[in-house]
């Protein structure tokens, strides 16, 4: 299965489009050099793992191909995200968002994961995050953003990201060194309750089960950058101090956890046949 973006009139290319470059130039600080350097460094880390640890030439060739496809996805998804944020915020300068290193590193990693899932490379998630030195909890936060930004993902990729999402929710985010615990401590030491993060309609609906990006989330609003850094420009309105309580990454995480728990309980009940 090819994972190179399809459907554009122009042939996919490794690099920012003219439209994305124009949006970069509209920023008070053009982020293109930093973005290119970060992408090159992360793809190099990925390739080094295969050069140092894998002797199979075919696997090395697949890794190189993955890097090329991941770069194409990265610039395409980044363009969609930038366009959406400019429209949502009503401003043209979003350099404060583009300069949040953690967002961009997680986005590159997600684009690599998109390409890896279609290649017979000899490892499973979350090895990629170990190679790139990223926490699963941080990586998890970009999955929803990517699904919202890119409608052209193959069904197999969406299914794979759903499986990754569940792995993080059920176990990978809960390791002793996870950044999740810092956010729980900052939230008076506990995970938000289901009543705090889900509307009454959500609590009463027994069929909310999948990862598909939701169009209306009044209780938990996913915003680019809001959950990764409180140091972005004030003009972007992404300060952790000013954002609504229920728009934080921790509240989104809690909502996803409760949704997964509800689905697992319903599946268990159906399997046992008690009801």
From TrEMBL:
GO aspect biological process, one term: cell differentiation
All residue ranges annotated as the Retinoblastoma-associated protein A-box domain in the record: 4-184
GO cellular component: chromatin; nucleus; transcription regulator complex
GO molecular function: RNA polymerase II transcription regulatory region sequence-specific DNA binding
PANTHER family attached to this UniProt entry: RETINOBLASTOMA-ASSOCIATED PROTEIN RB -RELATED (PTHR13742), RETINOBLASTOMA-LIKE PROTEIN 2 (PTHR13742:SF8)
Name of the protein this chain belongs to: Retinoblastoma-like protein 2 isoform X1
Organism in which the protein naturally occurs: Lates calcarifer
